[in-house]
Write a structure and sequence with these properties.
A hairpin with a 2-residue loop joins strand 1 and strand 2. The termini are far apart. The protein is mainly alpha-helical. A two-stranded antiparallel sheet has the order 1-2.
Length: 457
């Protein structure tokens, strides 16, 4: 007998359904960015600037950081984003699209082209200037926006395209993490870095010992690794990715054993004497506790954390980041300002560099026989996906905050990112809309895999 819906269910269920949609996070992110842009051009801008400038302290005595709110958003909240990125990377490397070298080669080469070409274009326009440090800005892809736009095309999108874009974005995220670690790190305090590595070693040891309590990893990761890296000068988001790789991916019981044990527990529950009220008996409570423990034992902590943190990151962390970083005053913006080296390098890097880099590298390595384009993916569809990969937004804004200190340069970069991402999204959507067949091809494509052709000796 189904339980009658309560008033709160009628409110919660539509929200839950919205949050489960693949396009929802992109929609929320777009609305938040638009709101930030609108507020930045009203009288509320001064108030918001004062809010982002409010200072907060974390730590104790000499092991303490006192920074404005915008810093804690970009280095604190965004560490949660990078932690989830790290969890996704580990899962994909262990059992996902990057676990098989044959399947991974195509998005890897596409990702390299989509990172190197935009960086080279930006460098061409800005080499020899103090803005040259912004070369990492057009390398990024915003996975939430890109997949959100792709999902708007519904079941017309073949599975191979979704897999390719997801794998490409993961490679892109890995590249962004390496770029931040190697090129956007300030002076390093070796003592604090050593403390961070010590805590990281403790997390690895806990994994080896079979510790599965995520609270322990949380304490060691936040109170140890993240804070120490923050004080060391190495960007704290790198600590988040490293900490994510220490989270256990193993299970206590196999899926077969889980099915057997659950069957036994459910039989015991059914045989328990029914109660006369909605309350359950102590025996039933004990059985339900065993069911919960058994279920937790078959879910790897890595997947449990990734699942539980996804909505927090997608609907809280990223919108807050967008609200704090996407706002820019348009009052003094002119066409001549948009044609200056910084915005020109970013816009051409994203719009031209991403598409040419991704399609070009795939074309070259496909022709040489190193990789093989899926049979149901045309080059026009690949071009559409490459355009979606040119939506930089979140990661591009984040790298902007690391690359520049000059407010004028930051404003120019933000406007270029917003314009390029908007154009890329529209062009990518239109290209795919015109090139995809009208019928539902998803069911015909369930077994399609992205494969790399064997390299001839």
């Amino acid at each position: 007998m189904d339980i009658a819906k309560t008033p709160i269910d009628r409110i919660r269920n539509p929200i839950k359904h919205f949050m489960s949609s693949s396009s929802s996070s992109g929609i929320v992110l777009f609305i938040t960015a638009l709101l930030s842009l609108i507020l930045a051009n009203t009288s509320a801008a001064t108030f918001l600037d004062s809010v982002w400038a409010m200072k907060f302290s974390i730590g104790f005595e000499s092991f303490k950081v006192n920074k404005p709110l915008i810093y804690w958003i970009n280095d604190g909240l965004m560490s949660m984003f990078f932690f989830v990125v790290g969890l996704e990377l580990k899962r994909e490397i262990l059992e996902g699209e990057l676990s098989n070298p044959r399947k991974a080669l195509l998005p890897i080469f596409a990702g390299l082209g989509g990172m190197l070409t935009p960086a080279a274009i930006y460098w061409y326009f800005n080499m020899g200037t103090d803005a040259a440090s912004g070369w990492g800005i057009p390398m990024a892809t915003d996975i939430a926006f890109a997949l959100g736009v792709l999902s708007l095309l519904g079941k017309r999108v073949p599975l191979s395209l979704k897999i390719f874009l997801t794998a490409l974005a993961i490679i892109d995220d890995l590249g962004a993490v390496l770029v931040i670690a190697l090129f956007y790190t300030s002076e390093i305090s070796l003592s604090n870095l050593g403390i961070g590595m010590l805590f990281l070693g403790l997390m690895i040891a806990a994994n080896r010992l079979g510790v599965r309590n995520v609270l322990i990893y949380g304490v060691l990761g936040i109170g140890g690794v993240w804070l120490a890296f923050l004080l060391s000068g190495v960007h704290a988001t790198i600590a988040a990715v490293l900490a994510a790789f220490t989270i256990p991916s193993s299970v206590r019981i196999s899926q077969e054993r889980y099915s057997q044990k659950m069957g036994n527990l459910l039989q015991k529950f059914e045989k328990s004497p029914p109660t006369s009220s909605s309350m359950i008996s102590p025996d039933m409570q004990e059985i339900l506790d065993d069911i919960k423990i058994t279920t937790d034992s078959v879910i790897p902590p890595l997947q449990r954390l990734e699942h539980s943190m996804h909505n927090v990151v997608a609907f809280v962390v990223m919108p807050v980041f967008a609200l704090a970083n996407a706002g820019v005053s348009l009052g003094n913006i002119t066409l001549s300002a948009l044609s200056s080296p910084i915005p020109l390098g970013i816009m051409l890097g994203l719009l031209l560099g991403k598409t040419v880099g991704i399609v070009g590298f795939v074309f070259i390595f496909n022709k040489t026989g190193i990789v093989k384009l899926p049979s149901n993916m045309s080059y026009v569809q690949l071009l559409g996906v490459a355009m979606l990969a040119a939506i930089g937004f979140t990661m591009s804004l984040f790298i902007t905050s690391l690359a520049f200190e000059n407010p004028a340069q930051i404003v120019q970069a933000k406007i270029a990112i917003l314009l390029a991402s908007l154009v890329a999204g529209l062009l990518g959507f239109l290209t795919l809309h015109l090139s995809l067949p009208p019928e539902d091809t998803e069911s015909l494509d369930d077994d399609v895999k992205i494969e790399a052709a064997p390299v001839e000796a």
